[in-house]
Amino acid sequence: MCRTDGNGKSGGSPPDSQPGDEQAMFSALLEDSAEDLYEHAPCGYLSTTLDGRIAKINRTLLDWLGYESSDLVGRRDFSDLLTVGGRLYHETHFGPLLRMQGTISGIALELKTADGDRLPVLVTSIIRTGSDGQPLLIRTTVFDARDRRTYEAELLRARQESDRERERLKRLNATLQKTLLPPTLVDVPGLDVAAYYHVASADEVGGDFYDLFPLASGTWGFFLGDVCGKGAAAAAVTSLARYTLRAAAVYDPDPAAVLANLNTVLNHEYNGQDPRFCTVIFGLLTPDGDEGGFQVTLASGGHPPALLMRSDGHADYLPTPGGQLIGVLPDADIATTSVRLDPGDTLFLHTDGLTEAHSVGADGRYGDEALLEFAQELAPTTARDTVAAIRDLLDTFGTGVDDDTAVLAFNVPRHSSEEQM
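Structure (tokenized):
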């Protein structure tokens, strides 16, 4: 509210301000002469002749350097205040650019103080010209960059520490990933086996897994699956799935029963706020007959179908439709099928990181149809050649592979007499 005098006119100073204080403030501002502002500015000022001789320097910069005006004015060049590296830069870059452009701004240099310390600064210089356009002198502004240098050093240290931490995490992820896969595949007499794991990102542990192991009565079990998600949580589910599948196969090797056991375990363990599930295909390999063939029984829980490449060059997916994701429902629908592998036949399993990859020059995903065409061109083939071809295919996708990819291939070798025909 304004105060009024007896006539109702407003007047006087604000309630919390005294007239004497305002007058003193304005007096101080008037006394702050241009010379005083120059001398005690929050940055350093100096003027030099065109050849670099110091002609004038303000008090602020003198205090930063620890000199008196008489130590420098008319006695020293600006370059004498620079470190060795700064002097070289001044002679080879700073000076020539200033003469050519007439101004140069924000150059990081280091000045030497009187006691031998280094003062990081940012320097801006401009050539002052006369009315005839001829250069007269050089004016330079110097900003103290110690806080900035400290900040940059801390930023660099933090980045280096982040890089080291990232490398440690990569090594940890690689080590963890190895523990989720068999170190080597077991030898199955009469069968060639090959596998490959393609890592999409070294920064995260993937959820793909596979294994091949012996069971009783000359039968071998195998599986290949993909856990939803990535990272430590997915790795925990992968480990649980892998060892549950092995244990369940020993108890009851029927493929549908094995996946039913895994479904019960996952649904029981991860049915709360953080549900976890996986797709998986489990199979049994049993030698069949004197000709060296194998009988294969497969069960699939929502997993991409296996590819069968016959010795006659025909290739197609094995029908396992309707299989549901493992771990989502208490009782999952599990699809089963059986097939015989004859000499020259190859069975190929993969996770969806392969078919969901972005192919170079394509608008969408690689897809199941493209993979089938790839297999038809490849057949007949061997397990090793199949995996090698898939590795080359994944390499062509480059960064288009968003998810890890695991592949597993089985091939019944041809007899020597067949190979010669």
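The mean pLDDT is 85. The CA atoms of residues 54 and 339 lie 93 Å apart.
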